[in-house]
From TrEMBL, chain A:
Transmembrane regions listed in the UniProt entry: none
Keyword Plastid assigned: no
Annotated source species: Marinobacter zhanjiangensis
Tree of life domain: Bacteria
Region called Disordered, residue ranges: 252-271
Domain ABC transporter: 2-246
Protein name: Phosphonates import ATP-binding protein PhnC
Membrane topology category: Peripheral membrane protein
Residue ranges with Basic and acidic residues bias: 252-264
Lineage: Bacteria, Pseudomonadati, Pseudomonadota, Gammaproteobacteria, Pseudomonadales
SMART domains the UniProt entry points to: AAA (SM00382)
InterPro entries: AAA+_ATPase, ABC_transporter-like_ATP-bd, ABC_transporter-like_CS, ABC_transpr_PhnC, MetN_ABC_transporter-like, P-loop_NTPase
Subcellular location field: Cell inner membrane
TrEMBL record, chain B:
InterPro entries reported for this sequence: MetI-like (IPR000515), MetI-like_sf (IPR035906), PhnE/PtxC (IPR005769)
Domain of life: Bacteria
A Pfam family it matches: BPD_transp_1
Species the sequence originates in: Marinobacter zhanjiangensis
Keywords annotated in UniProt: Cell membrane, Membrane, Transmembrane, Transmembrane helix, Transport
PROSITE patterns for the chain: ABC_TM1 (PS50928)
Annotated TM spans: 24-44, 132-158, 245-266
Domain ABC transmembrane type-1 stretches: 81-263
Record membrane topology: Multi-pass membrane protein
Compartments in which it is found: Cell membrane
Similarity section: Belongs to the binding-protein-dependent transport system permease family.
Protein name, UniProt field: Phosphonate ABC transporter, permease protein PhnE
Upper classification of the organism: Bacteria, Pseudomonadati, Pseudomonadota, Gammaproteobacteria, Pseudomonadales
């Protein structure tokens, strides 16, 4: 279980990215984190595994306070938290297998990882995960030889190779087409249910968030302005999170076709 | 649509000047620069008689080049070449071995501030002296011969390679480093898994380029007594044996060409 208590982050520039964020995520729950650009979604996720240093507050995973850890203890905590990135963040010149096995780096000594001598369990787990995400043919290919959807599958396998207690997901579908986006979201959802794994998915697409998460947290200017079931995202709530917009139109369009509006239509609208 | 506007849009557009935005100042600065250039050119003194004498000697050199004599001094040339090639290879290998740790230490995104400053200091020291000056100093310290040459070239290689390697490390894709850190990897593992794959092609390319430079430099520093083909060349010129000197120059050109072509082939292969 993950518990955030009064988490705040102020950057050195004086910008407040998060103020007094508190919530709990029980085991197995998939949380969608939505909000406008710059609301602090990425900062929140990165504070949890300390890629960004929080200014105040506590982050409790199991019974460890993540916000206070340093050095080796921090690395031991990080290996319990899997992370999936926006632009996949695979190491492009390494093979798919090396990318997946890098999920074990927090567990193996440096000389073993340097010589790529992973234990039989690590190797078979990696191959099983690649099979699960549908990439069993590609394990010796270089990561930059894969398509966007395939790369994100490798990203998922890398995070699961850590055998994590928590999954942090940062805009997993931002650079993927609608169909692949759905497949990726479904894959993440299945993985979480199978392992009873809690997840925080930071996502721009409200429709995807509603469809694939158990709970929605809405962030606006660093504050939680909505915390509830996906069905509770009424027009009033969306306006509170994002500001004024014709939300009905968004729903209607999303339901009929998902093609982005062409600039021509935008121009006509302006006149 | 145009009819709605009271005034038609302007039809002419010019890119605003980037450097001197004020029109009068721009003209003053450009005219001043031109006047300075003309005055400076007039201050050059040319002794045309001396140039004419030199032409005669230069022509002898061209003749020597056209009819190179490989045989008369072949023993000296061979010995010089072997010495030069040995110096080149050993100094490049030594230079690469030392510059990798210094380059990593001089990368701001990997090294803590004191290490960074120390490594940048070493780089600045190595880069502030031209090879010939270092060679004169080391020849005075270690005597004539290839050992002084080896030290000179290795020292110069360190500054060159570490600086460019450090810059390449700093230009690495941060998200790949972040992803590896997020798995709980230690510093060594981050270097091995996230940084090394990104900079390896460039490191190989730079090392080969340095090999090429070191060979050319070995011909120059030989003139100040640091051994190698440069010493042979110097002797040939001192004895007015322009045909032997021509032969040496042709061999140097041929070797540089071979290194150039093979390095571009190897670079493509490691990409």
């Amino acid at each position: 279980m993950l518990k955030l208590d009064k988490l705040s982050k102020t950057y050195a520039t004086g910008d407040t990215a998060l103020s007094q964020v508190s919530f709990e995520v029980p085991a197995g729950q998939v949380v969608g984190l939505i909000g406008p650009s710059g609301a602090g979604k990425s900062t929140l996720i990165r504070c949890i595994n300390r890629l960004v240093e929080p200014t105040e507050g506590t982050i409790t995973l199991g019974d460890t306070d993540l916000a206070r850890l340093q050095g080796r203890a921090l690395r031991r905590a990080r290996r319990r938290i899997g992370m999936i990135f926006q632009e996949y963040a695979l190491v492009e010149r390494l093979t798919v297998m090396e990318n997946v096995l890098s999920g074990r780096l927090g567990y193996v000594p440096a000389w073993r990882s340097f010589l790529r001598r992973y234990s039989p369990e690590d190797v078979s787990r990696a191959l099983a995960l690649l099979e699960q995400v549908g990439l069993s043919q590609h394990f010796n290919k270089r990561a930059d030889a894969l398509s966007g959807g395939q790369r994100q599958r490798v990203g998922i396998a890398r995070a699961l190779e850590q055998d994590p207690e928590l999954l942090l997901v940062d805009e997993p579908t931002a650079s993927l087409d609608p169909k692949t986006s759905r497949q990726i979201m479904r894959l993440i959802g299945t993985a979480c249910r199978e392992r009873n794994l809690p997840a925080i998915i930071n996502i721009h697409d409200v429709m995807l968030a509603q469809q694939f998460t158990d709970r929605i947290i809405g962030l606006q200017a660093g504050k939680v302005v909505y915390d509830g079931p996906p069905t509770g995202l009424t027009d009033a709530v969306l306006t509170r999170i994002y500001g004024d917009e014709d939300w009905n139109q968004m729903r209607g369009e999303e339901a009929t076709d998902e093609a982005p509006r062409t600039p021509e239509v935008d121009l006509a609208e302006g006149i | 649509m145009q009819a709605q506007h009271a005034q038609p849009f302007p039809t002419r557009w010019k890119r605003p000047p980037v450097l001197f935005t004020h029109t009068v100042w721009r003209r003053v600065i450009y005219t001043g620069a031109l006047i300075y250039l003309v005055l400076a050119m007039q201050s050059i003194e040319i002794d045309w008689q001396r140039v004419y004498m030199g032409l005669d000697r230069g022509w002898k050199f061209v003749e020597g080049f056209l009819l190179p004599d490989f045989t008369t001094r072949w023993h000296d040339i061979r010995a010089g070449l072997i010495e030069s090639l040995t110096m080149t290879l050993t100094s490049t290998v030594a230079g690469v071995l030392v510059s990798v740790p210094i380059g990593i230490g001089a990368a701001r995104n990997l090294a803590p501030a004191p290490v960074y400053l120390a490594c940048r200091g070493i780089i600045t020291l190595s880069r502030s002296f031209q090879e010939i000056i270092i060679a004169i100093l080391l020849v005075a310290m270690f005597g004539f011969g290839p050992f002084a040459g080896f030290l000179t070239l290795a020292f110069a290689s360190i500054g060159f390679l570490s600086k460019l390697l450090a810059e390449d490390i700093e230009a690495c894709d941060g998200s790949q480093i972040e992803a590896i850190r997020a798995t709980g990897a230690s510093w060594w593992q981050v270097v091995n898994y996230a940084v090394q794959p990104q900079v390896m092609p460039r490191l190989v390319g730079l090392s080969l380029y340095r090999l090429d430079i070191n060979f050319r430099e070995s011909a120059v520093i030989g003139i100040v007594g640091a051994g190698g083909i440069g010493a042979t060349l110097n002797t040939a010129i001192d004895r007015y044996e322009y045909d032997s000197a021509g032969a040496i120059l042709i061999i140097i050109i041929a070797i540089v060409l071979v290194v150039e072509y093979s390095s571009s082939y190897i670079r493509r292969w490691v990409q």
